Amino acid sequence: MSDLSKDTEAKLEEIAAERVEELPGETALGHRDPAAGGEGEPQDWKGNEDVKLPE
């Protein structure tokens, strides 16, 4: 069970949904898969360094 408030949990779910849309799709070999959507190249993905999480 989580210790997060419902509001914080809802904000995190919203952030996660947005981030999933941005993730570059990749093949099993790690190459970009244009059919999978997303932005950029998988090897260039920087992760969550610019995402501000709720406190």
Automatic annotation (TrEMBL):
Ranges annotated as biased composition (Basic and acidic residues): 1-22, 43-55
Stretches for region Disordered: 1-55
Highest taxon of the lineage: Bacteria
Protein known as: Uncharacterized protein
